[in-house]
Amino acid sequence: MYSIFGNIFLVFAIAISFLLVLLPMLGYLKKINEWLKLPSLLAILLFLSIVMAYLVLTLAFLEGQFQILYVANHSNSLLPLIYKVTAVWGGHEGSMLLWMLFLSIWILAVSRSIKSIPLELSALMLAVLGAIAFGILSFIYLTSNPFLLAENYIYEGADLNPLLQDPGMAIHPPMLYLGYVGLAIPFAFSVASLIIGKLEPSFIAWLRPWILLSWSCLTIGITLGSWWAYYELGWGGWWFWDPVENASFMPWLIATALIHSAAVTQSRGLFKSWFILLCIIGFSLSLLGTFLVRSGVLVSVHAFAADPGRGLFILLLIAIILGGSLFLFAFRANQLNTKASFSYISKESFLLLNNFLLLIASLSILLGTLYPLIVDALGLGKISVGAPYFEIVFLYLMMPLMIAVGIGIHADWIKAKDFNFKKLLYIATIFMVAVLAAIFVWTSSVSFLTVFGFWSAGWIALSTIYYGIKLRVARNNRSLIMQLPMMIAHIGLGVFILGVTFVNNYSLTTDQAVQMNQSINFAGSEWLFSDLNEVEGPNYRAIEAEIIYTNDDDTILFYPQRRIYTQNQNAMTEAAIDGAISRDLFVAIGDAIDSNEWQFRFQYRPFIRCIWFGALIMALGGLLAAFKHYFFNKSDLIKP
Amino acid sequence: MQKLIISIFFIFFIQTASTQPIAYSEQERVLFEQIRCLVCQNQSLADSQAPLAVDLKREISLLVNDGYDDNQIFQYLTDRYGDFVLYKPRFTAVTFLLWSGPFIMLLIAFFVFIRILRQSAKG
Amino acid sequence: MIKYSIPLITLTLVLFIMYRGLDLDPTVVPSPLIDKPVPVFSLPSLLDSDTVITNNSFIDQVHLINVWATWCVGCRIEHDFLNTITSASGIPILGLNWRDSQSEALLWLDNLGNPYIDTAFDPDGKVSIDFGVYGAPETYLIRSDGTIAYKHIAPLTVDVWEGEFIPRITDLCGSYPCRN
């Protein structure tokens, strides 16, 4: 029953999406205005059919309908209720349906807010979105159908991967997908603009809240992924430069560039073709990321079932969608450009610098992620490109940008006025001295990266605050309020950099075997292994150690666990974390040496929470900016 | 009963054959983080509990004690397992484009950037 | 016009690389020991601790070295096939017992048959590391001059044997079965 209904809704959605492509396209070519108005209705129908399909699948999970293969593979009757809901996106097929659900939500939202742009543009945009929907739906229906029935009767499900039985899992994929999918909107917008051959700044004003919204979602999604990996994977790291992490980070970098590029193109009508290209690249990387994760082409943490058949389908999808748009770009982009002048030192030049550096960073990460594949495909052997490469390349590329952020905020359009820079230089130097002094006092050892990290974090924050002060002093309250989201986002960046600098340079880790009733000395405190117990969870049994931490100030109890999940006998480690803004203390239990001696990992992570808080502050800034742009649509060009 | 259950767990998690509990130095740990575990290929040696990882860590620790430096240890590993085992790719003819790519992009971007600035300043 | 085509060209390249990647298995680690001499080792025999097996023990013969352990599921799967190889191919198999318990290993051979001309006992895995072993079962084809001709990772099956080993053995021996 479930399977039949699910498939019916899918097929219906495919049909609707097909019409969503066909009708506006024909309407545009034949100038039939009625057909240009149809997307609104079609968007509603598409949304409804996808929602129904999704609900059917969710219901199947809730009711343990194990005759559906996907449900059997990812669920279990003992699975707690909340995880039955999140298990829907715990595997490849369901997660693609979630992807599609979000696409239909975005399409619906867009179709209901197209008043301020020309009918042609909105219709074509929805047609492009429809094409994407059609492609993804076909992919789902033909290669990744979550409603397939199992061949034999299955009494009980295989249980959700224990790694995913966790609250972080509830929000990380949805947020991430919201962001990924959201990038389809600027993409559709640019392709539609290429088809029409026109790009007005006022249209970009319409687009901006959408870019900012998907950027914010991506930011939150990536942050949650990092946070989740930290406490769930058991080894205390927050970023691994794993191919799948890179797959989410690259679109984020491009989306960031896009936000800044939109500002230039909207305010001065410049770099239109560049803006369009960025929109295309952003979504390309989203789709590419989808491919990388599901095709088995790269070694990665994410355990989506590798299937070259699916990989081929996605490749074809990418080839058609992206190939088509870039083909269009090659021929049409030229027509769009308008000229305007700006001086060497101006907001335009800083934003251009921003775009170049972010693009190169993104391409470098792409290069590093794909390089093992390139080398293997050319028969030149097998290499790994891991964290050491990405850290070096990314860090050094970002350094000039971190410096530029502090200056660029103050630069005016067209031509920056000079007096700003003396004061900025003043701030920069004083702060550098302060940082050096502080480091010497506290640690008596200096390293270039540590100094630069602390300095740039403060530099960005201080420069932003100074900008706000300038506006206040000039009684420019309206500007101050309008610029507040931007300021919050950049201060968030500073907080983020602060956290990273602390964690990268002052973390302490030790892996040791500890005997029962033995205590070790680590990070200036005593850690006593005082007890070992068996505990039972809803679908697991665990061995739980008790570690008593003491130092002069306080005593903390830690209860790290090693779990065995009943259904599939998977073994997992649950780290015990004591968190505070100033530091995290982290204890994970490893393997047994004998019944009274176990391997432990202890970590001291100073200010690690600033990493995620900083990122969330950035996302907050983005959301506020989306809000601002939605309600205060400024579409006049700034002229000399 | 408690003891029995704990023993069951210990059998499940115990490291096989002859392994001795060892605490590794910070220097060794940093080294381990740069090497891929070939069994659990998504983890570094530092994070992996796989028997092979335990063995390799022990071997590397012995080499460090014998005075081997980082490069010699990497050579020891790549002689046996190939370049795949190193997270930081070595700079060879094959990886030339990998390491110089970002720099080349930066150089190209720099010239394009200057050109755009010049044109826009004039116009 | 040309500069606007650069993105399209880049995309084509990237897609091509991905496409080629679909046929590859990213988790397989090729061995750097191919065409190099067998690593120097000296281990006691599993069956008789007084006998010493070294890298030279079977020189002047084309032979196989098969890495196995009783805890290895794939080894159990390929064992039946291993029992048939020597007589069919004329090639002796030297076993390398990896990180195992001697008593269990002996029991295993008793129960399932012993296809090996002898088995080297490597309980702490040091020699296996020298061989670059990372996942049993692994099988090495050794030339009569003591260099490694080929390494196969994963259980030996009829298909693998016919596809990868028989052609190489025919090359090395001049015939199949091999007259060592």
Using brief descriptors, characterize the structure shown.
heterotrimer; A: 640 residues; alpha+beta; six-stranded antiparallel β-sheet; four-stranded antiparallel β-sheet; 10 strands; 12% strand; globular; C: 180 residues; alpha/beta; Glutaredoxin; five-stranded mixed β-sheet; two-stranded antiparallel ribbon; 5 helices; 39% helix; elongated
Q: What does this 3D model show about the protein?
A:
The complex is a heterotrimer of chains A (640), B (123) and C (180). Chain A is of the alpha+beta class and 640 residues long. Chain A has 18 helices and ten strands. In chain A, the strands form two sheets. In chain A, strands 2, 3, 4, 5, 6 and 7 form a six-stranded antiparallel beta sheet that branches. Chain A has a four-stranded antiparallel beta sheet with strand order 1-10-9-8. In chain A, a hairpin with a 5-residue loop joins strand 6 and strand 7. The model of chain A has no long low-confidence stretch (mean pLDDT 90). Mean pLDDT of chain B is 84; it is low at 15-21. Chain B is built from five helices and no strands. With 123 residues, chain B is mainly α. Chain B folds into two domains: 24-90, Orthogonal Bundle (Helicase, Ruva Protein, domain 3); 93-123. Chain B has helices at 2-13, 26-32, 51-65, 70-81, 96-122. With 180 residues, chain C is an alpha/beta fold. Chain C has one domain (35-173): Glutaredoxin (3-Layer(aba) Sandwich), CATH 3.40.30. Helix content of chain C is 39%, strand content 19%. Chain C is built from five helices and seven strands. Chain C has helices spanning 2-21, 73-89, 102-112, 126-131, 158-173; strands at 42-44, 52-54, 63-68, 93-98, 118-122, 138-142, 148-153. Chain C has a five-stranded mixed beta sheet. Chain C has a two-stranded antiparallel sheet with strand order 1-2. The mean pLDDT of chain C is 90. Chains in contact: A-B, A-C, B-C. Chains A and B meet through helix 13, helix 14, strand 1, strand 3 and strand 9 of A and helix 1 and helix 5 of B.
